């Protein structure tokens, strides 16, 4: 994994972005992109890729000392001390929840439903299951694609209003322009991606991308 050089991506220099460069991840991402990959394999690959990205995204979670006894004696280990909310954006983010819960079994999951209006490409919220009170330290937004970033930008705003200041976003592929827009609107978010693609189609799809991540997971059109 590597920390991307924000200036080379034409992003504000303070932008916190991690781009995965691991060969195993590159292999799996290529299969994920492949239009010959069916929904079953797509879901499997998305789970695996999310686990790697989630591992990287959680690199700075606070831990406290934890005293235990191994079969051979006492040991001071560590226990995670950060309360985390996973925030999958419906519906494409659903396939990323399970591997994140494998990493963080104590995380809570709050769903947010957003879709992009096909004409305006603007995000429309249709579901929000955040509880009234916010008592978590870090929110991790799960969305496989950062295209125009409208949906992510709206989601981060909702999370800030809810009361969480530290927001991370895990995504498989981001567009350059989407990242630029995201960091302009929310300079303090941290983004963890497996790849950054150059272009967006007129319909707002990432090119070359992988198509519609929701359709690919659930075999719909
Ligand atoms: N959402 C997707 O699923 N794919 C894209 O390319 C853009 C947005």
Automatic annotation (TrEMBL):
InterPro entries: PRTase-like, PRTase_dom, UPRT, UPRTase/APRTase. Residues 20-220 form the Phosphoribosyltransferase domain. The keyword Transferase applies. Pathway: Pyrimidine metabolism; UMP biosynthesis via salvage pathway; UMP from uracil: step 1/1. GO terms for biological process: UMP salvage; uracil salvage. The keyword Zinc-finger does not apply. Its cofactor is Mg(2+). Keywords: Allosteric enzyme, Glycosyltransferase, GTP-binding, Nucleotide-binding, Transferase. CDD domains: PRTases_typeI. GO terms for cellular component: cytoplasm. Its EC number is 2.4.2.9. GO terms for molecular function: GTP binding; uracil phosphoribosyltransferase activity. Transmembrane segments: none annotated. Belongs to the UPRTase family. This is uracil phosphoribosyltransferase.
